[in-house]
Amino acid sequence: MSLLQVKGLHAHYGKSHILHGIDMEVPEAAIVSLLGRNGSGRSTLLKAMMGLVPPTAGSVTLDGQTLSGQRPFDICRQGLGYVPEERLVFPNLTVEENLAIGVQKGAPGAHRWTVEEMYDYFPRLRERRGIRAGYLSGGEQQMLTICRSLLGNPRVLLIDEPTEGLAPRIVDVVMEVILDIGRRGVAVVLVEQKLTIALKVAQQVLVMGHGELVFLGTPAELDAAPDVRRNWLEVA
Ligand SMILES: Nc1ncnc2c1ncn2[C@@H]1O[C@H](COP(=O)(O)OP(=O)(O)O)[C@@H](O)[C@H]1O
Ligand SMILES: [Mg+2]
């Protein structure tokens, strides 16, 4: 059985029906890239899994435990981590204080992360540990947001467009970190606009269109499916 299972998931914003019955599975320690054009429903799917947008039908289970219907905080505590598109830092707290808030002792998770490991991933954050997060660059805030989520020791980490707006050098660092997270046994669902990156890091690729899954396969299979790329990914 897969670690994370999503079955027949629907979600609405008011009367707008956004997710139309999503079925997906995330195996233990797998990196799954979730692709699609803007507005296809990728962020809504992550939010529905987290309970931030309560699903109107369907279920989300983690290791056999039903998450759907629970509050985001409880879902997080059971091992689903989330890095939203908007960078979430406490601007008036230092880098170190932001990290300290993220630390969960005794939480589930394949790996118990430490603040030192976060500084090893992103030495720039170590250099700036005493600086208030509000003074960090966008890229540094993105790193800090990822670290805070990791320190909660998730079993599955949902990451929404982590490289958006980052300099190419930082994009490479973030990608290396995502690969390392997978090597340590944490599963990752990655929403990533840059196709080359999404295909490079993932073992499995899902493509969404209009709130439905329109493709499921390996990166090689997507590479060999120009019609899927043309119809659902490339911007006309
Ligand atoms: N808070 C919201 N209220 C109403 N509609 C929304 C909201 N957020 C997103 N949508 C709509 O839901 C659809 C899917 O959006 P989203 O999940 O953000 O797509 P993606 O992340 O793939 O770009 C879009 O049509 C978008 O306009
Ligand atoms: Mg989005």
From TrEMBL:
<dbReference type="InterPro" id="IPR017871">
    <property type="entry name" value="ABC_transporter-like_CS"/>
</dbReference>
<dbReference type="InterPro" id="IPR027417">
    <property type="entry name" value="P-loop_NTPase"/>
</dbReference>
<dbReference type="InterPro" id="IPR003439">
    <property type="entry name" value="ABC_transporter-like_ATP-bd"/>
</dbReference>
<keyword id="KW-0029">Amino-acid transport</keyword>
<dbReference type="InterPro" id="IPR052156">
    <property type="entry name" value="BCAA_Transport_ATP-bd_LivF"/>
</dbReference>
<keyword id="KW-0547">Nucleotide-binding</keyword>
<comment type="similarity">
    <text>Belongs to the ABC transporter superfamily.</text>
</comment>
<dbReference type="InterPro" id="IPR003593">
    <property type="entry name" value="AAA+_ATPase"/>
</dbReference>
<feature type="domain" description="ABC transporter">
    <location>
        <begin position="4"/>
        <end position="235"/>
    </location>
</feature>
<protein>
    <submittedName>
        <fullName>ABC transporter ATP-binding protein</fullName>
    </submittedName>
</protein>
<dbReference type="GO" id="GO:0015658">
    <property type="term" value="F:branched-chain amino acid transmembrane transporter activity"/>
</dbReference>
<dbReference type="GO" id="GO:0016887">
    <property type="term" value="F:ATP hydrolysis activity"/>
</dbReference>
<keyword id="KW-0813">Transport</keyword>
<dbReference type="GO" id="GO:0005524">
    <property type="term" value="F:ATP binding"/>
</dbReference>
<keyword id="KW-0067">ATP-binding</keyword>
<dbReference type="GO" id="GO:0015807">
    <property type="term" value="P:L-amino acid transport"/>
</dbReference>
<dbReference type="Pfam" id="PF00005">
    <property type="entry name" value="ABC_tran"/>
</dbReference>
